[in-house]
Design a protein that fits this description.
By secondary structure, this protein is an alpha+beta fold. 24% of the residues lie in helices and 19% in strands. A hairpin with a 5-residue loop joins strand 15 and strand 16. Helix 2 packs antiparallel against helix 3 and helix 10 packs antiparallel against helix 13. The longest helix has 18 residues. It starts with 29 loop residues before the first helix and ends in a 30-residue tail after the last helix.
Length: 620
């Protein structure tokens, strides 16, 4: 979506192809969210010079705003949702539970023996590699296998995986009704042949493609989608049940069970989801309210087709494989590649599926080496072991780029030389993503969070630490998706209350002193970042700027998988992560701030928001 383009202009996909947009929730009881703040977290609040609570919060405002989003899903309520989205951003900014750093610039580099399509703003992780070809006559490329680098993967199960690394592999093996080819923003049919939408926009009748074959030989049927979506709603392993059931997302009709008597993260009655088989190739979905983004949401990995009764995690299904096997040892999809192997922390591999319903892959296999250390990645690249790759920031030089903008706003050209004297191909795409620092709200006083925002110079971070590989972020929602268009975003950024692109030590000192924190009696804080030198450097810069102000900042690194696990356990005080949009809608990112949805005590499962435990800090 371009700056200023209204969400209301997006249209439903017809049988011929096209698109739309949307979001949603998970919850806990009212007693849970109105509980007292953690006693240990509140240590030192009594000494606040102003008498204001150190853990004061805007969480109630964010909760109320998200509930308005849920209650107003239709196209006619866009203005209500727009106002609510901005109120959530205001609450995040005022309480400073999350500090946006930059919106990402996705860059891709590849050697001359690779022919690979350009990707779009929704990310290269959506690309299927059957569109790639390799010149094996080149002196440095003798095998027709695509060699790539990946980071830590969590699961092979489409309903359990939420990380990009796993999604890249899942996308080669499984397919959906709709998709965004090569991460471009134009939605197209994938396994969908056609769809009929009722006049009230609540009933969708899907007809799937005929003659599509699974890797193990069975034919794709409508019952496979019903089974897959039931798993998404009912399995205890589902991480995105709210995408199917939530009001801000699809909002499919279902029946909620009595407390603790149902199944799945949303405690529903088994088999109550309104998705019904009509015949071998046709099934129907019924929504509670119109959702303009319905067909965009269905492009998300969790909605992929899975062969009926293949997994045994539904109460009434005696499946062929346990969920544990399905998440780590076996995959059976209809995509262009079939699963071969995955060794955690080491490698993953898929091979060409000769019976693919589309264009059969030119490459015989795709191999991912799982590497997260910057030095190891750089060595691997310079030894020509990777065909397509990224360049770690410590080894990146902007002056090596020679590129021109294409008709889609992408920079296309060359980069070089590398350490091996090669000049490689280059592509840069402004991505719909936000990378950030965030805090556990009950563990870190508001004044500490705000002080760090005061000393953060976004321009300095982007240009000096991240080598210009992004744009400054003053909101979680990227500018191209800002609810009130580009002018509205510019006004928002101009009003940044912590000193825009400055290091405001005086402002930081003032809020810390008011809260009782000084150089002699500092607040002790640990920042946990990616296993990434650039984020560690950002942490060191922040630590230096806080010197003598009343915060004693320690730094540590963790592999991505460990960072996620610790976040879900509520074991992160202060951390770095990022969010990449899977479809174009502010709510798809903002749902993670609904305070009830940030409760790490019920993650993964009942909650899938950001690891901030904002629900604990409601003011009484």
């Amino acid at each position: 979506m371009t700056d200023g383009e209204s969400l209301s202009r997006r249209k439903f996909l017809t049988a011929a192809g096209g698109a739309a947009t949307a979001t949603a929730v998970a919850g806990c009881s009212e007693e849970d969210i109105l509980g007292e703040p953690d006693d240990e977290a509140d240590e030192g609040a009594d000494d606040a010079a102003s008498g204001d609570p150190v853990f004061g919060t805007e969480a109630r405002k964010a909760q109320d705003a998200w509930e308005r989003v849920e209650a107003n899903p239709g196209p006619e309520a866009e203005d209500i949702r727009t106002e609510a989205f901005i109120e959530i951003e205001e609450a995040v900014r005022e309480d400073m539970v999350l500090l946006p750093l930059y919106h990402g610039l996705t860059e891709r580099f590849w050697y001359d023996w690779v022919d690979i399509p350009r990707t779009g703003a929704l990310g290269g992780h959506r690309q299927q590699y059957h569109t790639v070809s390799l010149d094996t006559s080149h002196e440095d490329k003798d095998e027709n296998e695509l060699e790539l680098i990946n980071s830590t993967m969590s699961s092979l199960d489409p309903i359990q995986s939420t990380d990009t690394a796993s999604g890249i592999v899942i996308n080669q093996v499984y397919e959906n009704l709709t998709h965004y080819p090569n991460g471009e923003s134009e939605l197209e049919n994938q396994l969908l042949e056609g769809v009929e939408i009722s006049d009230d926009l609540l009933s969708y009748t899907f007809t799937i493609r005929e003659g599509v074959e699974y890797h193990e030989g069975e034919e794709l049927t409508a019952a496979d989608f019903v089974f897959a979506w039931r798993r998404l709603a009912e399995s205890e392993h589902s991480q995105r049940a709210n995408f199917l059931l939530g009001s801000g997302f699809l909002g499919v009709e279902h029946e909620v069970a009595a407390e603790d008597e149902g199944v799945g993260p949303n405690n529903i009655v088994p088999g109550s989801v309104a998705v019904e088989v009509l015949d071998e190739r046709t099934f129907e979905m019924t929504l509670r309210a119109p959702e303009p983004a319905a067909l965009d949401i269905l492009a998300y990995d969790s909605f992929a087709a899975v062969s009926e009764d293949y997994v045994d995690d539904l109460e009434d299904v005696d499946g062929e494989h346990s969920q544990e096997e399905f998440s780590s040892e076996v995959m059976n999809g209809v995509g262009p590649f079939e699963f071969d192997a995955w060794t955690e922390q080491e490698e993953a591999r898929v091979t060409r599926f000769e019976g693919y319903h589309g264009d059969t892959a030119d490459v015989e296999a795709v191999n991912w080496e799982i590497i997260e250390d910057d030095d190891a990645i750089w060595t691997y690249v310079n030894e020509r072991n990777a065909d397509v790759f990224g360049i770690p920031t410590p080894f990146y030089q902007q002056d090596n780029i020679d590129a021109e903008e294409d008709d889609r706003g992408r920079d296309v050209g060359t980069y070089g030389p590398l350490d091996n004297d090669e000049t490689v191909n280059y592509l840069a795409i402004p991505e719909l993503s936000t990378f950030y620092f965030a805090w556990s709200a009950p563990q870190v006083p508001k004044a500490v969070r705000q002080a760090i925002a005061h000393v953060t110079d976004h321009e300095e971070l982007v240009e000096d630490i991240f080598e210009g590989r992004g744009t400054e972020a003053f909101s979680f929602t990227p500018p191209g998706m800002w609810p009130t268009d580009a002018d509205g975003y510019n006004d928002w950024a101009d009003e940044w209350p912590y000193g825009r692109n400055t290091t405001d030590r005086d402002g930081a000192r003032e809020v810390l002193e008011d809260a009782g924190f000084t150089a002699d009696d500092p607040f002790e804080l640990t920042l946990t970042t990616y296993d990434d030198e650039a984020f560690q450097e950002a942490g060191r810069l922040t630590r230096d700027k806080l010197d003598g102000l009343g915060i004693d900042l320690e730094l540590e690194e963790a592999p991505f998988g460990t960072l996620i696990s610790r976040g879900e356990d509520g074991d992160l005080q202060f951390y770095s992560l990022g969010w990449i949009w899977s479809w174009i809608d502010p709510g798809y990112g903002l749902f993670g701030f609904e305070p009830r949805n940030t409760d790490t005590s019920v993650m993964p499962g009942e909650a899938d928001g950001y690891y901030i435990d904002w629900h604990e800090t409601f003011e009484q």
